[in-house]
């Protein structure tokens, strides 16, 4: 029994075993608050046990490898608890946030696709700005990585959206926290620009190299909370004779991004183009890169025109029900669709 | 690999005037650099006129909204309108007598097929490097028109369509790379085809569809090509009534809301006309 090796009192040891903590790994994986709750001790005592378990674990296994190999294990119960604290990045469109359960989720890979001019890049820029909303205003206070493959990222547009975002925050603080006045002064559109790491890539080899390098980059630049790839598709629609190679490269890239999302607890948003597909005698619209690619992301959102209104539709998600919501692209960024505002007013 | 510092990039991306303040206002300053802009319209809608004027106005100093730069004009429709360029440059010289002969700064090249264009891109690159050291740098590349290259050589079969779209992305990728490296404003023109049934996918802002000469049209080359340009501007004409009306409308652009402007083509060039009653912007 590994727990027996810990230099702690017999009663605590008993409680640990009774709560199901039989191995050092199990203890090391638990957080102090979980442990404190499970074995009914104070947080500081739990922390002490954790430290001891960590120390014993390392001295026990001088090579120190086996902990990392099995370190990824987590029970579904823990995951459910984590889920409660998972963070979201707002899209600035309340309707869209509602169907997404609060916004774009961290640790997830979300794919957003649609026809040209529907607002993919606009959503990308909006998210790169919104991720920086400070925690006092319900945001993450993080930074963004923007990978631009198409050259549609326009600084003047980022400034417009950033200014509108800061104005909205000022209004929010006036409404709810009259005391937060000094906080808003700190945010300036230039700060927002400074916290977007912008990469312009000109070929698929560059794109793959950059994504391989991101792990190191995020280690060096803490607080990156979102990676936006606009678009993941463009360079993969040229120069490929060998479609099997393309599929392999793409799924490897998706896997890397997914790892980054989990490791650094950040959101990955991949923008995709659309193409037509011949199904049952008629041409239908579908996201590009083929069927095997559609397995590569956790969530998939399709943007489309419904009459005069832009709509977003959740096409695939393990936890959200499929639903659609209208949104609009305004000079201030992504916002609720005007017609849905009217509807609310009428009710 | 290092991220670019957005604070060091100009806060308003560089634009090149199209040679008329009213049209520039519609495009928020002109044609953006580092990006591909498409002018799409039926024949006689003024695409080539606008491109020729752009090639001249790019030579203006930045105080006049230009880039102090030369331009490359790749034409795929024959013959190249030399006489019109002469005429426009005459008007250009009278208004800007201090600049050298503008025709010396427009490099013209004919291209006959899509493959030829794809293989021309490395040559253009060499030329761009060379031009930087020799003359005023080239900052404008015009391709008039891209559609003409693709309208004859391809059958309507699966393999040909695949080859076609792979060429689209190849050409666009090459042009975007050049645009990024040399700060080019790339302008391509595209033709239109008649709109047939519901099979066409709505692209862009104009909710009622694109109308020109009373017919509903849509840009040629389909959805795949639409992904290959950053901004699309629609030129239409309408001959109902006593005067010929021409209109320029933004279909989609990452930096522009939906906007439009009427324009005229005269001997001296293309000129925007302020709308007498300003229409309220419907959707953005």
Automatic annotation (TrEMBL), chain A:
GO terms for molecular function: ATP binding; ATP-dependent DNA damage sensor activity; crossover junction DNA endonuclease activity; four-way junction DNA binding. Residues 85-274 form the RecA family profile domain. GO terms for biological process: meiotic DNA recombinase assembly; reciprocal meiotic recombination. The keyword Nucleotide-binding applies. Its main location: nucleus. One of its GO terms (cellular component) is Rad51C-XRCC3 complex. PROSITE patterns: RECA_2. Signal peptide: none annotated. Keywords: ATP-binding, DNA damage, DNA recombination, DNA repair, DNA-binding, Nucleotide-binding, Nucleus. Gene3D superfamilies: P-loop containing nucleotide triphosphate hydrolases. It is found in: Nucleus. Belongs to the RecA family. RAD51 subfamily. Involved in the homologous recombination repair (HRR) pathway of double-stranded DNA breaks arising during DNA replication or induced by DNA-damaging agents. This is DNA repair protein RAD51 homolog 3. It comes from Vigna unguiculata (Cowpea).
UniProtKB/TrEMBL annotation, chain B:
Its main location: nucleus. The keyword DNA repair applies. The keyword Nucleotide-binding applies. SUPFAM superfamilies: P-loop containing nucleoside triphosphate hydrolases. Keywords: ATP-binding, DNA damage, DNA repair, Nucleotide-binding, Nucleus. One of its GO terms (molecular function) is ATP-dependent DNA damage sensor activity. InterPro entries: AAA+_ATPase (IPR003593), DNA_recomb/repair_RecA-like (IPR016467), P-loop_NTPase (IPR027417), Rad51_C (IPR013632), RecA_ATP-bd (IPR020588), XRCC3-like_C (IPR047348). Pfam families: Rad51. Residues 12-192 form the RecA family profile domain. It is found in: Nucleus. GO terms for cellular component: Rad51C-XRCC3 complex; replication fork. GO terms for biological process: double-strand break repair via synthesis-dependent strand annealing; meiotic cell cycle; resolution of mitotic recombination intermediates; t-circle formation; telomere maintenance via recombination. This is DNA-repair protein XRCC3. It comes from Vigna unguiculata (Cowpea).
């Amino acid at each position: 029994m590994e727990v027996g090796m810990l230099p702690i009192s017999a009663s605590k040891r008993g409680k640990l075993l009774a709560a199901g903590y039989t191995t050092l790994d199990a203890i090391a994986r638990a957080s102090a608050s979980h442990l404190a709750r499970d074995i009914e001790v104070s947080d500081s005592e739990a922390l002490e046990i954790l430290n001891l378990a960590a120390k014993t674990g390392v001295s026990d296994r001088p090579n120190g490898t086996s902990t990392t190999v099995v370190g990824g294990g987590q029970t579904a119960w823990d995951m459910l608890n984590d889920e409660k604290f998972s963070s979201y990045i707002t899209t600035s469109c309340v309707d869209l946030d509602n169907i997404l359960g609060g916004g774009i989720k961290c640790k997830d890979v979300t794919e957003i696709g649609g026809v040209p001019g529907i607002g993919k890049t606009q959503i990308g820029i909006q998210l790169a700005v919104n991720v920086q909303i400070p925690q006092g205003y319900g945001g993450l206070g993080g930074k963004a990585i923007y990978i631009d493959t198409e050259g549609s990222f326009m600084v003047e547009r980022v400034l417009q959206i950033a200014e509108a975002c800061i104005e909205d925050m000022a209004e929010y603080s006036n409404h709810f926290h009259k005391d937060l006045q000094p906080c808003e002064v700190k945010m300036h559109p230039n700060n927002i620009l400074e916290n977007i790491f912008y990469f312009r890539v000109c070929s698929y080899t560059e794109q793959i190299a950059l994504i391989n390098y991101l792990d190191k980059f995020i280690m060096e630049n803490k607080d990156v909370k979102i990676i936006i790839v606009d678009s993941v598709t463009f360079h993969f629609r040229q120069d490929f004779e060998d479609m099997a190679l393309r599929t392999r490269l793409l799924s490897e890239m998706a896997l890397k991004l997914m790892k980054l999302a989990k490791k650094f607890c950040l959101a990955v948003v991949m923008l995709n183009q659309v193409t037509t597909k011949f199904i049952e005698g008629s041409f239908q619209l579908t996201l590009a890169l083929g069927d095997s690619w559609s397995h590569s992301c956790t969530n998939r959102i399709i943007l489309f025109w419904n009459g005069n209104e832009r709509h977003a539709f959740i096409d695939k998600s393990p936890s959200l029900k499929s639903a659609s919501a209208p949104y609009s692209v305004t000079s201030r960024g992504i916002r609720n669709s005007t017609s849905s505002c009217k509807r609310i007013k009428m009710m | 690999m290092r991220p670019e510092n957005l604070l060091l990039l100009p806060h308003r991306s560089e634009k090149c005037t199209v040679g008329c303040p009213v049209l520039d206002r519609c495009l928020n300053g002109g044609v953006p650099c580092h990006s591909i802009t498409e002018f799409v319209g039926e024949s006689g809608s003024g695409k080539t006129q606008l491109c020729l004027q752009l090639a001249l106005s790019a030579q203006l100093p930045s105080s006049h909204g230009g880039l102090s730069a030369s331009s490359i004009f790749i034409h795929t429709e024959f013959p190249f309108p030399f006489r019109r360029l002469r005429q426009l440059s005459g008007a250009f010289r009278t208004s800007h007598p201090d600049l050298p002969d503008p025709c010396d700064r427009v490099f013209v090249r004919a291209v006959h097929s899509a493959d030829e264009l794809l293989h021309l891109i490395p040559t253009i690159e060499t030329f761009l490097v060379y031009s930087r050291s020799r003359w005023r740098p080239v900052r404008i590349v015009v391709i008039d028109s891209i559609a003409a290259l693709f309208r004859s050589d391809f059958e309507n079969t699966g393999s040909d369509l695949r080859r076609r779209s792979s060429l689209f992305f190849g050409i666009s990728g090459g042009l975007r790379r050049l645009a990024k490296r040399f700060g080019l404003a790339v302008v391509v023109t595209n033709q239109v085809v008649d709109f047939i049934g519901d099979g066409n996918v709505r692209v862009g802002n104009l909710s009622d569809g694109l109308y020109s000469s009373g017919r509903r049209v849509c840009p040629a080359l389909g959805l795949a090509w639409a992904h290959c340009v950053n901004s699309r501007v629609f030129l239409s004409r309408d001959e109902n009534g006593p005067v010929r009306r021409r209109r320029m409308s933004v279909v989609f652009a990452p930096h522009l809301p939906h906007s439009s402007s009427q324009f005229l083509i005269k001997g001296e060039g293309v000129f925007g006309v302020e709308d007498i009653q300003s229409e309220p912007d419907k959707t953005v």
